[in-house]
Automatic annotation (TrEMBL):
Native organism: Rhodococcus rhodochrous J45
GO terms, molecular function: FAD binding; oxidoreductase activity
SMART domains the record matches: CO_deh_flav_C
Name of the protein: Carbon-monoxide dehydrogenase medium subunit/6-hydroxypseudooxynicotine dehydrogenase subunit alpha
Keyword NADP: no
Keywords: FAD, Flavoprotein, Oxidoreductase
Transferase keyword on record: no
Domain FAD-binding PCMH-type: 1-178
Stored InterPro entries: CO_DH_flav_C, CO_DH_flav_C_dom_sf, Diverse_Substr_Oxidored, FAD-bd_PCMH, FAD-bd_PCMH-like_sf, FAD-bd_PCMH_sub1, FAD-bd_PCMH_sub2, Mopterin_DH_FAD-bd
Amino acid sequence: MKPSVFEYLRPESIDEALRMLAEDPDDSKILAGGQSLIPVLNFRMASPERLIDINRLTDLAYLRSADGELRIGALTRHAMLEKSGLIERRWPLLKAAAHWVAHAAIRNRGTIGGSVSHADSAAELPVALTALNASIVARSSTRGARLIPASEFFVGTMTTAMEPDEILVEIRVPALPAGHGYAFEEISRRNGDFGLAGAGVVLSIDAEGKVSDPRISLLGAAQTPLRATEAEERLAGAVADEQAIDDAVRLACEAAEPIGDLHGSADYRRSLIGVVVRRGINNAVTRAKAGRDATPQHNR
Ligand SMILES: Cc1cc2nc3c(=O)[nH]c(=O)nc-3n(C[C@H](O)[C@H](O)[C@H](O)COP(=O)(O)OP(=O)(O)OC[C@H]3O[C@@H](n4cnc5c(N)ncnc54)[C@H](O)[C@@H]3O)c2cc1C
């Protein structure tokens, strides 16, 4: 199908984009990479009267660290996350998650701002950002910028805490301890498909071999990314032995409320959650042990 008729606007600055959006927020849509919006328009699942193309706002495409935290501009493409040395060294979970997003052609166009704003419940980057305790900077022309924690940003399937007159401009990710372990695990029917189940895990292992600051964020377990807090509490301060990992996997599965569809029943999806959480914890622990042994004491 073809989209309904719309007016196409191409601002040259973020202020101009915000002004255009404020003129008619309920009937306008921001166009970033177009990898989700264009199919939505073609299927006429949405028929906005105006498209505001932000692709000329190239100063929104950046990755930098400031005061130890990572700042990601909204127009940063998924491929930039995959290829950045800064991400690989300091926030490798993001690289691992980006790699699971669709195919290379889509990762070259799709943006992190688009993925987070679109808030598909099967999208990898929102899950990784929830594990990383990230915050989202949303701006409007009248109220300025506000910071929304990822834990409050994702409200439901394709629903966020942003107001219609706001543009997502930046994502901020706090520093992680040197030598932390991470893993992003996913199961999908075919390579590049949206995942049936996934898990983003970060944790550290202290000098006594105990887990510290474990974070487990689930994909496909709810309508939003879901932190498996009971599983995290079971691991925190424990030695990551078989019993602790079994318990954490069970608690994560109990917390999950997957919805069955033609790709798999709710029970099947819950069992997949168990598989990805177990893989995620095991791989994160292995990396954390290697990272701890390789990190000088004063850098921890
Ligand atoms: C075949 C196919 C397979 C895919 N598989 C996956 C997958 O496995 N995992 C996955 O995560 N994604 C997948 N995607 C989606 C892809 O990752 C998109 O890039 C992403 O969802 C949206 O990013 P975008 O920049 O293309 O946004 P767009 O499509 O341009 O916009 C998406 C939505 O976000 C809004 N928006 C965009 N930017 C902003 C902003 N800065 N502020 C406010 N609102 C904004 C738009 O108005 C629109 O509503 C797939 C897409 C396709 C076509």
